[in-house]
Design a protein that fits this description.
It contains three helices and no strands. It starts with 5 loop residues before the first helix and ends in a 17-residue tail after the last helix.
Length: 108
């Protein structure tokens, strides 16, 4: 035995299944309000839960200073990716995307 806790492994398996399910139903969400609700429910929590479970096993200690630095780093990355994506889409003539700070302009 390697001392693994299978509860966490099974939780990650369920979360990975939800990712796959979300990708499968994505093309149909505009046609079905029920599937859109399922899609939004999955994407509401699956990645934060997966990150939390994976981070639970890290060796580092999360202090307020390191947590704030991580948050600001990812916020900056999010804003940069948003700006680049929207600029490229507008550059190629697709105007349906706009820069929103609280909602990504793209699904992934």
């Amino acid at each position: 035995m390697n001392g693994r806790d299978w509860v966490y492994d099974h939780a990650k398996l369920v979360l990975i299944f939800l990712v796959v399910l979300g990708h499968i139903i994505e093309p149909f969400i505009l046609k079905s309000p029920e599937l859109e609700s399922v899609f939004n429910f999955i994407y509401l929590f699956h990645m934060p839960a997966f990150i939390f479970i994976s981070g639970y096993f890290t060796k580092g200690e999360l202090t307020l200073k390191t947590g704030l630095k991580l948050f600001l780093d990812y916020l900056l990355l999010f804003i940069l990716i948003q700006l680049v994506f929207v600029a490229v889409m507008k550059g190629i003539g697709i105007d349906r995307y706009q820069f929103l700070t609280v909602q990504p302009a793209y699904i992934y």
